[in-house]
Amino acid sequence: MANDGLVVGLDIGTTKVCAVIGERNENGNLEITGVGVSPSTGLRKGVVVNIEATLRSVSAAIEAAEMMSGREVHSCWTGIGGSHIDSLNSRGVVAVTGRNRETREIGPEDIDRVLEAARAVVIPMDRQVLEVIPQSFIVDDQKGIRMPLDMIGVRLEAEVHIITCSVTSAQNLIKCVNRAGFRANGLILQCLASGRSVLTEEEKELGVALVDLGGGTTDMLVYSQGSPYSTTTVPAGGAQVTSDISILKNLSFETAERIKLDAGCCWEPLLEGDDEIIVPGVGGRPPLPIPKSHILKIIQPRMEEIFNMVRDKLDQLSLSRPLGGGVVLTGGGAQLLGAAELASHIFNMPVRVGVPLSVGGLVEEYRSPEYATAVGLMLEGASREEVKMPDRTGESRSREKGQAPLFGRLADWLKKEFF
């Protein structure tokens, strides 16, 4: 590996860039040894609008993580998200050729072929396939099979979840990372990475909606029966909440953000008393006292709007059974006091705030919802390096030209994912 045993996750968001450095200990287990954060100004709603500003943020975040870990970073796994992300479910079917024509035993090449058949969907020229995630397999009408390798059958079907993104958005992200002096090993969907770091296998099996409250967008990934079922994005996030406070109280964006983090609440029963917070005056004016209840009346309607938009997307899905695992909130917006209570009221189901599961190393530094994506990118990158998955970023260009490579070593990956 180019990083000499390091695995680096880079979460480039609308309001901040997070970098997490993972290092293998003597037992071969990953431990987080460096965490870096930098303000992000070059993105709007998850899409790069200023390359120079973005690459400066990337450099600053990775340098901060390098300083903490004492190691030098050369490459990283980069997250991608935003309103340009789209998804669909597809199905492919092939006849089993098998290792033994008499017994019709399903081999890795049959799995490769059926997944290629499933991903053969028509997408516009300006979009590329980001992820093809197997949901389940069907062997001779026997449904719900997770891993058909070595089974005997005549007909093999695969149900997959396909995630697509804008070609230009993906290329601009990679360009920012490369120009900052690092190599992008591949692009990984941000909410898929978040799910990797905060969700339990039991929640995925029961069915769960992961809601990632970012700065510019709110991303939702729904798991059903252990596999991703739907990926969708709402074009609103924490930055809109800050903007509301800034406009209604005539404050700078930075001051409004600080007030939101220090004194913000979006669920009235949690508001203890009605203390006033002192806000510095603008342009030499005297400091201004603002009651916390005023801040709540600004924050709560906007958070309700975001959760209602997510609920509408959730209601449009034709799920085979209710989400027994409820809703898990993550991302920076999940740290807002009362977010889980308000979400539980709107979704009418159990809600918890998801923090990254302990990986080891600097636990206190990364056990926060805002690091969920970066930690997940590191974990997902490590697993892809272990099974030597093909570089999906590099594949995308050849796929656009119709030269879709087969899913080499996919059986290993499926075993790792499902067993």
UniProtKB/TrEMBL annotation:
SMART domains xrefs: FtsA
CDD domains, alphabetized: ASKHA_NBD_FtsA
SUPFAM superfamilies on file: Actin-like ATPase domain
UniProt family annotation: Belongs to the FtsA/MreB family.
Assembly and interaction partners: Self-interacts. Interacts with FtsZ.
Gene Ontology BP, a term: FtsZ-dependent cytokinesis
Sequence ranges assigned to domain SHS2 in this UniProt record: 7-198
GO cellular component assignments: cell division site; cytoplasmic side of plasma membrane
One Pfam family of this chain: SHS2_FTSA
Record key words, sorted: Cell cycle, Cell division, Cell membrane, Membrane
Membrane topology: Peripheral membrane protein
Gene3D superfamilies named among the record's database cross-references: 3.30.1490.110, 3.30.420.40
Protein's name according to its UniProt entry: Cell division protein FtsA
Matches recorded under InterPro entries: ATPase_NBD, Cell_div_FtsA, FtsA/MreB, SHS2_FtsA
Function in brief: Cell division protein that is involved in the assembly of the Z ring. May serve as a membrane anchor for the Z ring.
Cell compartment(s), UniProt: Cell membrane
